Amino acid sequence: MSVHPGRAAQRSRTVELGMPTVASDPHRHLRGTESFPAAAHKALADTQLRRNLGHATRTIRAKRAGVVSEVDDWEELRRAGEAIKADTMARLPELLVELESQVTARGGVVHWARDAEEANRIVVDLVRGTGADEVVKVKSMATQETGLNEALEGAGIAALETDLAELIVQLSHDRPSHFLVPAIHRNRAEIREIFLREMPDVDPSLTDEPRRLAMAARAHLRRKFLAAKVGISGVNFAVADTGTISVVESEGNGRMCLTLPETLITVMGVEKLVPTWADLEVFLQLLPRSSTGERMNPYTSTWTGVTPGDGPQAFHLVLLDNGRSNVLADRDGRQALHCIRCSACLNVCPVYERTGGHAYGSIYPGPIGAVLSPQLTGIDGPDDVNASLPYASSLCGACFDACPVRIDIPNLLVQQRAAAVDAHTRPTGQDVAMQAAAIAMTTPGRFKLAERALGVGRVLAGRKGRITSLPWPASGWTNARDLPAPPAETFRQWWARTHGGD
Amino acid sequence: MDVAREEVLARLRSARDAGAPPTPVVVPRKYRPAGRYAPGSAQAVARLDETLTDYRATVTRVGSEADVAAAVAAFLGSASGIVVPPGLPAEWLAGFVGEVHRDTPPLTVDALDHLDAVVTGAAVAIADTGTFVLDSGSPDQGRRVITLVPDHHVCVIRAADVVCSVPEAIARLDPTRPLTFVSGPSATSDIELDRVEGVHGPRRLDVVLVGALTRS
């Protein structure tokens, strides 16, 4: 094979350009419009939301604890899962090339996408090439991240979400708020109302019994599945040494999308890789128990390229960077790429349980989202809303204990806070306060003067004894927390009064 | 040349090196490679019975292959038309009086949608999790679509194919064939995180377990 000189030059230039790069976010799915404290304030005022989330997360925590306690080698599985992912990241480019060659050898076509727009463009072109104007989709975080549905709609192609919760989100023109159950913020009565309003052929006597609601979704989607020409999926695990792709699901909508269409397009973040087929023996134990709290989810499908006579006869795999190289470049931060999207850390997080997922702005919410989103997007200075995400935590550590691959989320949150501080180009309230404290604490005389100022705080606090709002720079603190009123007397003042002088 | 491919790989190579761990990663595989009970043992089959039942499959235990036909016929009841994979043993259907469609030549999706049930074998079953695996390359399991479109699935599992743990099952499977791991009838946890059985896949799942009956 001869290489055209111009092409060789282009190759060397692009290799030089190959620096880790943050995500493109054309449809703002990785950044909200306001900071976490501002969004959380609104979420906390929604009592229905808090009831729905409290009920759902309590249910899932109990189920998870039950099935995890059945497995006496759970800690050994977690350690293996952690190391397999760390090993994958240390060899990611080589393993991706291996995956590509295995998929290609078995009749699949592999595409590479640098960012969200490129992935969307590849998928839109592939769908156009089939002549289809409608696609059925299995729930996929990667295509939510890129805003694929919007891109398809822009090209005149209808994208039909088939996962029940994703369907609820799509029908109600809402945003997902959880990895596993994007409509976790909705209760059964709200879901019934959405179905009655948005499903054209729904039985008007529909009740809010979950079984009846599931049947309504079945009826709504059945003809669409049986007639579908193109299916679009994400990936749970891709196996480098065999080229095998797996999708883990419950309802059978995944099987429908993976089996019935003539063409299957699968979009995969490059981190969804494991080196060998045998590695699935670890993750197929860790994921279902951590995720839905089941010993095993109802359906897991695996396939390798194209199988003549069975399932889609055209298979396209789109490998997506979109900021992952930026995360990989950080020795500690790359742990966020180990995430298998089980959502256990969301379900145990005291902050997530109260605010829900929308407050995080990004489609990756909860503790893992708070470290993944700012690393994918990078932080554009102090006003970037994603700079507020690493503070959406009390650092209680429950997320680490629940994580099936032992991601040290509390440590990553602290590191991301440091990164957020580094992104400041002018001093923040916190910087000013710390500098002031340093000056005040250097000499006893200054400290004494500062203590007198505390009396002002008692006036601000008023009779309720809480300070809820302070001017900048102290607003940085009071936006998210109340301050107790300072005591009537400091320790030093008490000492002076009861022991006579300094 | 694929510019995007080269660019993504170049970015990932520099990122891999920039964030490389100080020492090479060693994967500690100290988890159990095998389950508590031996493959095919009476205890493994009894545990599979429990875990299948726990996730709302209905299980019938029979002592030998000769008893399969009666159990299958009982599960199929008044079904009028069923589909079976090309290589399903004919003896398993000896007690069924309705119409049997062998999937050869392959049935259309519409034809499958009008049939009441499907009967298959399984490649392997996992006692710890209540799972069986369908290997679409296997003559008694067949194309994936035949176990998906009909609303009722009857699966015959031989004791010799029952293992206790997930690692034992993974080791027995051929990843180059399309595989479907099935654990109970289709279900959803999407409404308030409560499990509800029966969505898009078969809503009714029945299992005939053959052999390794425990002596009482």
From TrEMBL, chain B:
Q: Lineage, please?
A: Bacteria, Bacillati, Actinomycetota, Actinomycetes, Pseudonocardiales
SUPFAM superfamilies according to UniProt: NagB/RpiA/CoA transferase-like
Q: Superkingdom of the source?
A: Bacteria
Name the PANTHER family for this protein.
LACTATE UTILIZATION PROTEIN C (PTHR43682:SF1)
LUD domain ranges (all copies): 112-210
Alphabetical list of InterPro entries matching this protein:
FTHF_cligase-like_sf, LUD_dom, NagB/RpiA_transferase-like
Query: Which organism does this sequence originate in?
Result: Actinomycetospora endophytica
Please name the Pfam families in this protein's record: LUD_dom
For this entry, the protein name equals LUD domain-containing protein
